[in-house]
Amino acid sequence: MSAPIEMPKWADTILVPAISVVAAFLIAGLVVLSIGENPLTATRYLLQGSLGTGEGLGFTLFYATDFIFVGLAVAVAYHAGLFNIGGEGQATLAGLGIALALNNLTFLPGFLLIPVGILAAAAFGAAWAAVPGYLQAKRGSHIVITTIMFNWLASVLIVYLLVNVLREPQSMNPETRAFPEASHIPFMHEVFAWFGIAIPSSQLNLTLILALVSAYLIWLLIYRSRLGYAIRVVGSNPAAAVYAGISPARITVIAMVLSGALAGGLAVNELMGYQHRLLLEFTSGYGFVGIAVALMGRAHPVGIILASLLFGILYQGGAELAFEQPNITRDMVVVIGGIIILFAGALDGLFRRLVAHLLSRPKLAGA
Amino acid sequence: MSPAIELIAINKSFGTVHANRDVNLRVERGTIHGIVGENGAGKSTLMSILYGFYEADSGEIRVNGAPVRIRSSNDAIQAGIGMVHQHFMLVEPLTVVENVMLGAEGGAMLRAGEAKVRKELARLAQDYGLDIDVDATVGDLSVGLQQRVEILKALYRGADILILDEPTAVLTPAEADALFELLRSLKAQGKTVILITHKLREIMAVTDRVSVMRRGEMVATVETADTSPPELAELMVGRRVLLRVEKTARAPGAPVLDVRNLSVVDTRGVRRVADATFTVHAGEIVGVAGVAGNGQSELLEAIAGMRPLSLGSIRLGGRDIPLSQHNPHRMRELGLLHVPEDRLRMGLVPAFSAFESAILGFSDEPHLGPGPLLDHDRLIADLAKKMEQYDVRPPAPRLKTSNFSGGNQQKIVLAREIERNPKVLLVGQPTRGVDIGAIEFIHRRLIGLRDAGVGILLVSVELDEIMHLSDRILTMCGGRITGERKPDETSEQDLGLLMAGVTDEAA
Q1: Is the pLDDT of residue A366 over 50?
Q2: Residue ranges covered by each domain of chain B
C-alpha cells in the first residue's frame, strides 16, 4: 500500500536517468580516487577521448551503432514481457548468415550484396531467437535460461565452423576470407569525401543511419501499430491478451523473431561495416550491453539512442583513458560501466521515488 | 468518558488530489461505527492514516483522549489499533498459530512464544466465541475462517479498536451473518469496531452510528437508528439516487444463446463447470447467482471462448459454434461481447492510456487506422465522445487507465462493448468496486440494452443486483446449476439455499 509514483514525463524520461548517471560518475570518481588517481583528470581523458576529436567521435558513434541495435532488440522483447539475454548469440549467428550469403552469392550484381547481407543477418538472428521464443510459447521453457544456452551454442558453433569449415585453407587465423568489395558498407569518411568534405577516418560507417531508421521504425511499431499494441498488451497484461483474443504464444514468437533480427544489426555494423570478414568473438559482449542500454533507455527508442551514446562514450573514452593512465586499466573502465548499469537499472527506483517526492512538495504547499 | 478515537482536522494530499480535507471523526468506545462513501471518497486514506500507512499532512489523532503520533503500523498496534484488510495478510502454508505468532514470535526460539499464543488463543476463543482449529493450515480454511484468523491476529496484539475494510466482500451471506455476530460480541466485551463498507444493508444491520464521506470530506455522522438507506445514499452521492432502477415486464424473444451440457476442466484437471445447460433469449437478462468461486467465472470465460470446453456445445443466434471458431476473436465477430469480471486483470490494461484500453479486443478493426497502424487522434476522438455519453470522469482519453476510479474504468469497458451493438452480452460483476452513482448508471444501461433486444447473461455475487436486474435467475454451486427461479417468485433465503447446493430435488 503505497501512493503510486506519478511525475511529469520530462522528469521520468530525462531527469531521473540524468541523476542516475551523475550519481554513478560520482561513485566511479571515488573508485578512481581510491587507486590514487585524480578523478577530474580521468573524466577529462574520458570525454576528450570520446568527444574531443573527430576520430574519437567517430569511434564513439561506431560503438553507439552497435548498442542501438542490441538495445532495440532487448526493448522489443521487453515490451512483450520477455527478457532476451541472447543478443550475443543472435548477433553471432547473424554474422554467420552474412558470411554465408556474401561469400556464396557472389554471382549476384554488386549493388544487391549489401541488402542481401543485411537480410541474411536479420534472418539468421531471427531464426536463432525464434527457437527459444517457440520453446517459451509452446513448452513454457524460460526464455532467460534458453537464450543463455543459445549464446553458448552459438559460441561453440561458430568456433567449430571457423576452425573446420569456413577457414581459408592457407590461413592460420580462424576467420573467413574477405567479403566481396561491393558488400562493404561505406565508411562515413568515404561518404563525406564524395561530397568533398574531409573528416577524420574511423570505423564509423553508414550502418549508423540504418540504426537510426530502425529506431524510428521500432517506435512506429511499438507505439503506433496494431502489432505493437498486441505486443504491449501481452507484455503488460497477459490475461487481458487472452480476453482480447490475442494469442500470447504467437506474440511471444513474433517478438523474439523481431528481437533476433535487430540483434543482427550488430553483425552488420561490425562485419559489413568494418571487419569485412567473419571472425571469432566479433560481438565482444556487446549483446549484454544491450540489456543495460534498454534498461537505461526505459525501452523507448529515443532513450535507447541516448543510452547508446553514453555507452559509446564510455567504451571509446574508456579505451583512451586506459591508454593515457596505465593505472586505470580496461577492467577499471568495465567497473565504471558496471556502476552506471547498477545506478541506471537496479537503483533507478530509488531516485524515481526521491524525485517524485521532491516534485510533489511545492504542490502541497500551494494547495 | 473520552472517545476511543478522535480525528481532528485531518488533511492529506497526493499531488493535486486532496484525499482528506479537514476530516473530523469521533468514535465512541464500545460501539460499532460505520464509515461509508463512494470509491475515492477518502475512506481508505483516512483509515490508512489511522493505521500508520500514511502520515497526515496536518491534523491530530487522539486515542482514548490522548494525542498520539502514528507513523507506522507498529505505532498503531502500540496504540491498540488493529486492522483487518480486505485482502488478507496471511501466509497460507502456515498454521493458524504460526500466522498469529508472525511478527510477535517473542525471541529467536519459537517454543515459548508458541505456548503463549496457544494459551491466549484459547482465552480469546472463550471470550468472544471465536472458535477455530489453531493447528489447521490457513490455506485450507474457508475465506470466512481466514478472516477470523486476521481478527485473532489483531486481538492477540492487544487491539482495543478494530478496523475492518470491506469485510464482507468475500463472504457468503451466512458467513457475513456470522461475522456480524462476532462483531456484536466484540462490542459487548467493550471493544470498538470501525466498519468500512459500501453495503448500506450491512450498515443498517450492525452499526450504532455511521459517518458518511464524500470527495475527501466528512459530510455527516448520524445515529443508525435515525437514518435510512436512501438517506445515506443521498449523503454519499450528493444527490438523490435510485437504489433500484425500474424495469418494465417484457416478453423474451427468440433464443440467442444456447448452452448445452457445458463442462470446463481447468489446467490442473479440476472440474470447474459441470454439465451446464441453459438458454438466453433476446431481450432477456439471465442472472447467475452464486458465491464467488463456484464456477461462474469459468462459465463466462468458456462461453466467451477464453477457455476450451471439455464437453458441451454453444449455439449463438441459432448457429452452432464449431470448435475451430470457439475463440474470443470469432465470438466477438459473431456478436457475443463480454464485460469481464475482473476489469483490471482482463478488461483493461492498467498501464495503457484510456484510449488504448478502449480498443482492447478490437485493435484489428479496419476503421481504427490505416493498414497496420492505429490512428491515435481518431482513437482519442472516439473515446472522448464515448466519455461524454457515459459520463466518464475525468473526460481525459489520454489519462492512464489505472488513474480512473473503479466506476469510471467500468464505464470505459461498458462503452467499448455496448457501443459495438452486441447480440449477446456477457457481464461479470458489473458493479464490483463501483460507487453508488455509477451503479445506477450501469444498471440503467443494462436494462436499456435488454429493452433493445439484447440477450444478457449476468454473473454477480451481489444478490440485490441479481434480484433487481434479472428476468430469470440461475444459481450455481460447485460448478453445477442448482436451480432456476423467477425473481418475483423467490427470496434471498431461497436463493441462498440453492447457492449452498441444497437443490430442489434434495429439498
Answers
A1: no
A2: 5-237, 255-499
The predicted-structure confidence for B398-442, as pLDDT tens digits, reads as follows: 999 988 878 889 999 999 999 999 999 999 999 887 877 788 899
Q: What φ, ψ does residue B60 adopt, rounded to 5°?
A: -130, 145
CA atoms within 13 A on the CB side of B50: 30
The ipTM value here is: 0.85
Distance CA A68, CA A87 (A): 12
Class (C level, CATH) for B5-237? alpha beta
Among B18, B305, B374, select the one facing A224 at the smallest CB separation: B374
> B255-499: which CATH topology?
Rossmann fold (3.40.50)
Residue owning grid cell 483522549? B65
Q: For chains A and B, what is the number of CB pairs under 8 angstroms?
A: 86
Give the whole-number percent of chain A exceeding pLDDT 70.
Answer: 95
Query: Which conformational region is residue A108 in: left (phi greater than 0), alpha (psi within -120 to 50 degrees), or beta?
Result: beta
Q: CA-to-CA distance for A76 and B436, rounded, in angstroms? A: 42
Q: Are B53 and B44 in contact (CB under 8 A)?
A: no
Q: What is the mean pLDDT of residues B36-58?
A: 86
* Count of CB atoms situated within 10 Å of the CB of A199: 17
A119 vs A298: CA distance, rounded Å: 28
Grid coordinates given for A235: 507484455
- From the list B14, B351, B372, the residue facing A227 with the nearest CB is B372
Smallest CA-to-CA distance from A222 within A248, A258, A257 is with A258
Query: pLDDT by residue (tens digit) across A14-44?
Result: 788 788 888 888 888 888 888 888 889 988 9
Q: Which of B337, B349, B380, B427 to mutate to test the interface with A (most CBs of A within 10 A)?
A: B349
Which residues, other chains included, contact B1 with Cβ-Cβ below 8 Å and sequence gap of 6+? B29
